[in-house]
Amino acid sequence: MRNRKIRYLVLSAALMCVLTACSKNGIKEGTELLEKGDFEKAATVFEQAAKEAETEGERAPEAYRGMGMACYALEDYEGTRQNLQKALDEGGLETPIIYNLIGVSSMKLEDYDTALAAFDKGTGLPESGVVSRGSKEEETADYSEVIREMKFNRVVCLEKKLDWENAKAAMAEYASLYPDDANAQKEAEFLSTR
Q1: Do 102 and 65 contact (CB within 8 A), yes or no?
Q2: Which residues pair with 36 in a beta bridge?
Q3: For residue range 4-45, what is the model confidence (pLDDT) as tens digits?
Q4: Neighbour tally for 129: CB within 10 Å
Q5: Separation of alpha carbons 59 and 92, rounded Å
Q6: In a 3-state reduction of DSSP, which class is residue 177?
Q7: Top-confidence residue, 16 or 114
Q8: Taking the mean position of all CA atoms in its chain, how far away is CA 90?
Q9: Distance CA 18, CA 5 (A)
Q10: How many Cβ atoms are within 10 Å of 57's Cβ, its own excluded?
């Protein structure tokens, strides 16, 4: 299940790269490698694309985003955070997926403050958005499940910080939005003992 989820997130992010008109050969090749599951080679190709862009005095948000995706698949969570943040810093597309990956990576590194900040930014973005392939094609991306996951992960982060009051409040909000979530019901039961 975990590998399937990683693959889903990486493929979703790779699709975002394709849909946002990543045109350089290195970006295209790296995206194809991500889709094939060759994450180490993808990271190398994206890194080279970033270096080439910097040499030419250009920004390379797609290359850094691709490196972040590859790092996440390789369970290099610090690399994930650094590269995805660099992609954002260079003007890359802000999506809930990017902030979710930064947040989850931060949780894996037990950096719950950074995780919470990422989840807050990600949940503040729209649940859907139009992504274009240049000027001719547009698609709508649905981020509702990613936003739902981030809202639940906020609760987990607050618990890890032993911030029971805010964890209870966040869980109450989550449960009101997603009353059929069995995991949330268990989590709410746990929080009621705190």
Answers
A1: no
A2: none
A3: 555 555 555 554 444 343 435 689 999 999 999 999 999 999
A4: 15
A5: 9
A6: helix
A7: 114
A8: 16
A9: 20
A10: 6
Average pLDDT (140-164) is: 95
Arithmetic mean of pLDDT, 105-116: 98
Contact in structure between 146 and 129 (CB atoms under 8 Å): no
Contacts of 21 (CB under 8 A, 6+ apart): 132, 133, 134
Beta bridge partners of 139: 131
Q: 69, 66, 82, 57: which is closest to 25 by C-alpha?
A: 66
* Tokens describing residue 125: 């973005």
What is the reported pTM?
0.82
The pair of three-digit structure tokens given for residue 152, joined into one six-digit string: 């639940």
Q: Cβ of 3: how many Cβ atoms within 10 Å?
A: 9
Q: Which of 10, 20, 12 is nearest to 42 (CA)?
A: 10
- How close are the terminal C-alpha atoms of the chain, in Å? 30
